[in-house]
Amino acid sequence: MLRYILVFSCATGLLVARGQQFSAYKPLNFPEAANVQDVATGDLDNDGDPDIVIGTDGGHVSAWFNQGGGVFGEAVRLAEAGRVYQVKLVDLDTDGDLDVTYVNWGAPDAGWCENLGAGSFSPPQTLVDELAANTACSLDWADVDEDGHVDLFLSSYINGVVAWYRNDGSQHFGPREAIVSCPYAWVCAAADMDDDGDVDVVTAGDGISWRDNQNHHFTGTLPYNGGYIATQLSDVRGLVLYDQGNDGYPDIFVAEEWNDRVVHYTNDGTGNYSWLNYVSDYATGLPGVEALRLLDLNGDGYEEIVAAVSDDNSIRLLSGSGSGIPLVTGVMGASGMAVADFNGDGLTDLVTAAADAGEVAVYTGDGNYGYTLLQTLTEVSGTVLDVAVADLDGDGLNDIVEAFYGAEVIGWKRNLGGDEFGPVQVIDDATPGVQRFLPRDVDGDGDLDVVTSFYQDRMVWYRNNGSGVFTAPLIITNTFGPGDEFDMGDFDGDGDLDLAACDASASSIVRFENPGNGNFEPPVAVATSQSNVRNLVCADVNGDDVADIVFFKEYTGGTMVCLNDGSGTFAAPSIVHPGLSQLYELTAGDLNGDGWDDVVIARGTTPSLLCMGSNGDGTFTALDTADVGEGILYGSLDIADMDGDGDNDLVAAATNLDYLFKWFANDGTGNFPTSDTIDVGYNAAGWDAADMDADGDPDLLVAYGSDLRWYENFIGSPYTVSGHVYHDADGSGTFSGGDAAFPGTPVLCDPSASVPYSGADGFYLFHTDPQAYTLSTPPPHPWWQLASSPATYNLELTELAPTAENVDFGFAAAYDTLVVSVTSTSAPLRCDVPYMRWLDLVNSGTQEAVVQLDFVPQAEETILTVEPAPDQTIGTILRWNFNLPLFGTKHIALLAENNTPPFLQLKDSVHAHMTAPGITFNYSLTHLRNVLCAFDPNDKQVEPEGYGEYGAIVIGTERLTYTVRFQNTGTDTAFTVMVRDRLNEWLDPAGIQVLGSSHPLTSLNVENDGEAVFRFENILLPDSNVNEPASHGYVVFSIGVRPGAPDGTAITNNVDIYFGGNEAVTTNTVLSTLVDCSDFGASITWLDGSTLLASDGLHYQWYLNGEALPGDTAQLLIIPQLGEYTVQVTTAYGCTALSDPFAALNTAIAEEGGLRMAIVPNPMGDWSRVHLSTPPPPGATLCILDLHGQTVRTERAVAQTTTLHRNGLPSGLYTLCLMAEGRRQTSGRFIVE
């Protein structure tokens, strides 16, 4: 994946590229916990080693992929379901790889995930979803009809039936054929039970039944009692068909959960439904036996019967009597098992499913029934409370340590390298109230142990054996729990880590001396009468090589230090900083390079980081205050060298709606003049800044809920791709030092979501990951063509070859042309306040342009100052004459004022006359601006603006132009302004062209997630109170619209604007809707003798004999006279069409006074509306007459539109009359259906 930053210098119109510092997030989330019900093994990704699939009672199917050597990666969720009781791997679509099938107690009854190759699976697809109460509990596969496709057997617990579903070869199954019944049929299996060459089926529940396959189909109908052959059983949970006597006839072995036994029935091969004979209890003393499997445990080619025994947590090899031989124990709620050679040593290994623990364990086998735990694959539920990064297994790679709220688990994930992490390995799964943990070497053996505090009641530590295997918790204290308030440091100079903590119950700070082996001495008070201590760190603030203790109080706000005299004796607390409200976090480190640890305090009320520099004697001096601009999370502060310049930077997590991490770059003196952000999309519950990929720089690890992500920092990455994009004017096809730069050209890289652009000298460079890439670059405009070879580079970055250089692309003119963009931008116009105007020109053609530029202000507008000054002034016209070189820019700034009344428009114009050899080009631009007395100075505009509220534009529009305007309305100069634009998915991040900006644009960084970041460093934008006109700024850019957008595609866009480290200002959202009007048409419907109805739209204009009818702009028209009518209909999206003519040759004649009536709809259903051409006269009534002229109903007419309800009118034809002043005013006929 590529990381880049694009830097643009407006002074020269050239671009400079540098590497993007942080990648898009890399997810490390994992499935939720559930009782594991079944486990299966098979090579899912065809890499030669077996993988693992599980089904859980919590309703999901997940897979672990073997990375080689029996090391498994993160769990991959394949399907969500109800309660998955069985999984089977089978090549369902006969494409040569294993698909995943499962049975589900819920909907659907059975499903599958198609293997798409290389370990990629389709979303879950339904196999069967028709059983009553959805109580499917077992499935098996066999080719019943011998057509080359496996068919499905499915048992239903409630129905007590096994059915089979024919596979038609395209993975469509059915119809359902119920073939055998058995009370509470829990399990089913297919095999040739009578040695006739076809597949029969056996099921077991509260008994055993079987069904004979006769010539590739099952005969008879249910209830099929002929195959019900054992009744003395209950709660069968396991079934295997195994030829115990090697006579060619499979015997039946069933596991009875409640009777704690496995029962054996022999098959005599007669096939007359009496062949099943009870022999004996094959195994007894198996409490809660859950599953039976036939497994070849020692690789000798012979399968043996193995049982999962839930209540005694074991996997047992059954031998024909007694309780068998325990293979492994401690499998909590054992529910399933499978075998495979996971580590490639030629010996059979074992994988077990533990329902109660919600975990899968992998054991290596020795070939003689001995097994050693290799890895526990745990799926942990709950919220990630905190995370830390540390190398727990001593392999040189930092692993991840996590604490889970809800699951009460502390665990860790092994760093497998190459951005891959293993599943959670449990350190302790009984940790209620866990608050904080620290990876530290407690016992001095060179590996990192884990120290943990709990809410109120205790502190413990877990000893690491060096490979990431931890002991049970070792008690430090069980009299109090310090919560978050503890840290470790060497207090007495003996080389081991002691511990300091807050004992809230005694309102004191205490220390625990470590004699070196982790057997901590009882606590000794360091400072008493210290209530409400919120945070505590150990740091050497006076340079004597022993740790002092720094802490702050939550309510009184004081930050204190207890100085250590070198022997572990501490002085009384002294003040680091006096009282501050809402202190959230504390950390320490050397910020100014003087060798003393300084103190950083995070404040919440005015979100900021206060840096206090140590003077080396226990006193402190303020260094700098970094303004976070957002709320600060508890536990959200860290110190790390984020930019690789050798000094410590600050990192903080911000809250509110922006969910940003901010880091502040240290200039080496403890001042933090610049900052950057990482958008993580949520409030972090826990995080750490540490080197995740062993490249020497700190990355960012972030946790929220059960989601875990990390963001790679590329400062220290050795993997780079670089080259030049150049103007191949000499046609050599190769880059030489004399070739002119071709700036601002995107370099496309696959795979990557980001796009680097060439810089001012045509050079580009970006940091990335080790893998294979394909690089290419399209011509930025049709008049340029690629002149170098190759057109596409295929390259691979590896540890031995981490860089790819001289990846060059040369362009030459396809034809000579003159292309200069001209933009005119204005600050918002306020009443009686001078304002800024800007003109920008960019030459993107193939030749130098000779330009004559005229600016013509409106008469009401007075130009006060101009920079640069015009070459001529002709009346009110300002004229500049200049040459615009290839890739050159011109920026003109004008200060103006106007005397136009509010809410009116100013109109000025720009005219450009441009020439090049053999080419003349004239361009005119009219700029309309509204004069407002109140406005939002930070906004976004789009061109074309589009029609109506949807901003409708023609589908196929190739580019949109955005203008972002901003103003510093704060109280001090803004040194940095950053505009963050989350580009819509239909906008092409490789198609940005900067058309102008108010100030030199330092960089444009289009990040991996498609967010464009425009940065103005050292902009020195004054605040509006000091210099209102100069407090404004802008950036204008055009961007390509991706082709293929469907009709109605909405492209929304807004930006966040940051002034220094302040909170983001979010602009309005602009909307552009792509509309295809080619199929839109208008039509006229005749409703009755005097009423016409236009087809649906938003606006209407009626015409009579080609002339517009004034005021007739409604969808309905009551015909005023005979003639030819048309209507123009306009939709909400601006589509306009004129209808075909409608000839009104015979229409009802209005009564005296010209009053006309329309009845809609006609015929009437339950109601119709009566529309009159004018309001009815006073006292008017509506009379309904039947065919005989008899009055059926009369009601008052008080409005121009009246709703007429049927109210029991029989079907038929009626006349509606409007009566007033003793006579009929108008009438109309209607039908009741």
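(the above was protein one; protein two follows)
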Amino acid sequence: MINLRFIFLVLFLFLISCQNNDNLFELKDNRKLGISFSNNLGFDNDFNVYKYRNFYNGGGVALGDINNDGLIDLYLTSNQNKNKLYLNKGNFTFEDITDSANVGGTKAWSTGVTMVDINSDGLLDIYVCNSGDIKGDNKQNELFVNNGDLTFTESASNYNLDDKGYSTHASFFDYDKDGDLDVYILNNSYQAIGSFNLTKNERPKRDLLGGDKLMENVDGVFKDVSEKSNIFGSVIGFGLGVTVGDTNGDGWEDIFVSNDFFERDYLYINNKDGTFTEDLTNQMKSISGASMGADLADIDNDGFNDIFVTEMLPSKYERLKSVTTFEDWNKYQYVVKNGYYHQFTRNVLHLNNGNQTFSEIGRFAGVEASDWSWGALFFDMENDGYKDLFIANGIYKDLTDQDYLQYISNDEVVKSIVMNNEVDYKRLIEIIPSEKVPNHAYKNLNGINFSSYTNSGLDLPSFSNGSAYGDLDNDGDLDLIVNNVNMPLFVFENKNKSKNNYIKLELKGLYNNVNAIGTKIIVKTKNGIQIQEVQPARGFQSTVDIRPNFGLGDATNVDIEVIWPYGKKTFLKNTKVNQTISLNEKDAIEFSEELTNNKATKPLFQKNKIKPNIVHKESNFVDFNRERLIYHMCSSEGPKITKGDINGDNEEDILISSSKGNTTQILIKDGSDYYIDKKNKKLFDDLRDVENSEIIPFDADNDGDLDLYYSSGSVEHSRYSQTLYDRLLLNNGKGEFIDSNQSLPDINSKISTGAVISGDIDNDGDLDLFVGERVKIGSYGSPGSGFILVNDGNGNFTNQTKKIAPNLINIGMITDASFEDIDTDGNLDLIVVGEYMGINIFKNEGSRFNPIQNKILDEKGWWNEIHISDLNNDGKIDLIVGNHGLNSRFNASKSRPLKLYFNDFDKNGFGEGIICFEAENGKDYPYALRHDLIDQIKSLKKKFPDYESFKNADISKIFDEKTLNESDILITNTLETSIYINKEGFEFEKINIPSEVQFSPVYSINSHDFDGDGDEDILLGGNLYDVKPEVGIYDASYGLYLENLGNLKFKYHKDGNGFFVKGEIRDLLISDKNIFVSKNNDKMEVFKF
């Protein structure tokens, strides 16, 4: 039999030989380094992945200078074998001193490792977490105290740090700023996953032995203060990552904990009094599901720490189709209802907004999918001033493989594996697929955009877990160590050939915090600022080089501000680069934040309490129960708000549309407040069965008062329901409305209305209407029509579409429209937008609307809203158009558009739309997973009996040529919310706008000169929560204020200059120096300016 270690060595040498010499990192030959380490796992019938769920979680890495010779040494944990300590001898050579140092460990299963000076003697000690459930082993953590002579003494019990939980990692920091280091010990619940009753949320149930622990250092002995400090320590804690840092900029360290399985993550905010407040659900709107490793760093150089958390969403299509399942809508709602929050299967990147909220932008940044991911580390790989991202990936035996799970659920297979009540674990495990997946490296382009770092040299297929960065050769760039399962250790030397500069700091702290953990360093260059905090326990089960290393790009001198943990600061001006600077906290100056005299400026927008406050309530209808292949609901797109003088008192009243089962409201203005109109209560109560999608005040019958077009929308009714007729409600002159009994748009058109506008299109002195069909009920993807309704002058409307605008018939899924005299010829032209539609402009020729062929007609988007404004004061109308945004699993471009294939694929009388993306090979592949397609189209099960047969199938393999030829194919080639500037006539040009606009779908837009500088500024609102869990909710927007700086330049304000709104914004209305904000399933908010 060929030796397994020999095979791994051959593969390792092969990986080295295949590396590109132009790569940033070079994989070193471990033999030349003097390192012989592989975290090898063997089979044991009594202890394996079916007996211990974390069997393949792997080991950690710790970097630190244990002998103070200026070189970073290396400690590695092994699960089944001896841990290893390697002494750095310089020039990338190491010596194994494990045995002589007495640090190999005596416990059966080591996991995380932290280097820390536990006794403040100036020497780094080693704290090793242990886990597993191996007979005869008590799992207690080990503390190897440095004796100063390259030997260590195990002393965990002396410090009360011999924790006996399933420990994953530990982070040491001075949470109470009393001058010594405390510790957060991260544990993973003893209890089996299947033993929990999820309806009984057991988060408050404390597990004294196996729960997480916050341990306070009391005179050198650690005391459990978890309960007193409001740390959960819960029986449902499945901790895999603990990350410590200041998230709110108050100078005190907070704690982020990433939990595996069904429990949500925790964000503990330091209250500065020895206690914490767990505040995740107030600060983050969505999180990863089975969270693993995490890291905290300021990625966009705005001075606030952002948070990245890993999960298991594959980046390769074939893996996605063969190993991934997602919760359905009902399971997701069940999880949320029972307090486990909005969790989704993907990596997440929480961008810090600087006001104790975060925006999740992982999909926008392009880092949401990296496969079975463990450690995540932010560090500046080539010293350009931006922190890049490394993710360690891989699972040696992939228990999520769907064909494997399907195979072992077969009765005959079960009988062959289980005999005489004994399970043949060896066979059961041998047949689990094992596939290396590449580690991922992402280059930070500008703070919020990342791209695959293709020449990093780090993307080697492997089974990687813990990882740590550090400057092993003291050359000013960061090298990387990666611990692998059943593979040799990866040691990567950074071969940075750029001319980028750096500066490194060595810090000595006060009291018993010798290494100044918790210090914040601010480096200022001509390119801006950077911050780092001294906290070496990072990523997954690992410890990085404690010396802060700043990449500076081409900066040649810098200003440095060091904010020490205990109220002192050090300032260095015009510091030369490319050097290591040693600083001591005792030499710093006392500093008080009170002396800074930073007066907050009054925000432009301020909350305004207006009574009464209307709360929108959405119905419980679930679109996915009717159409299994859609991803976003169409039934929860309200409420809309409009304004008009309803009762003739020369005041603008507010009208708010309603969901099915609820009542449309009119707020009558009364001085500075409003009251709810009661005159029309019975009328609107009688219309409660209608989803009132639009309510448009206009003078329909030319009698001088405002009537109402009351539209019916959504997809909650049968396509044959009488409630789908729109209504015209006529004002009797006293603010009371009477149904005109017209069936609109006409007697033959029961539609779900998505847009209504009024305008005098024929210049006869009365107002005509355009009505847009949002969607064909039960057949998402089937094109709807636009309707031109001509007024006879008395409020009677006839459908003249075939005569006046035949091109509106079956134009698409319409979401919005506008009448504007674009070419200033005195006639109102028509602009129509919608899903899978271009920006359609129809020129009014007097008796007919003719389509205009221009560039923006080819801008095929998932358009939600169009707003008209003159942004450059040239007298021409410009277009602001709300789209889906770029923070999404869906991507579209001109070269690789999204396509929706629409046909009655299952022959049930209702069409289905199958959304596909175009791959690099030019073929179209469905987003839908195998089981989702089969659930809708049963005949596919025979064609694709397993996941292996389906994983590479493009749309042409799934359906025959005849079926595809008979299908309608809708195209989307842009998902960006966009601004188009009118150049001349009907020609428009797209301009650049701040990237933050793309963080979420935009459903509402308004503009006004809010700051009084003579040009129109912009407000936008959006978010979308009613979506399938597999794509995840869109929640990263808190409303946006874009300040118009002139010359078509717009400034994004992270805090909105006071305009900051949580929730799903559906409309923005400006009235009387107030901004009314309607939100789906939430109360209305009002801002004054």
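Reviewer note on protein two: The mean pLDDT is 95.
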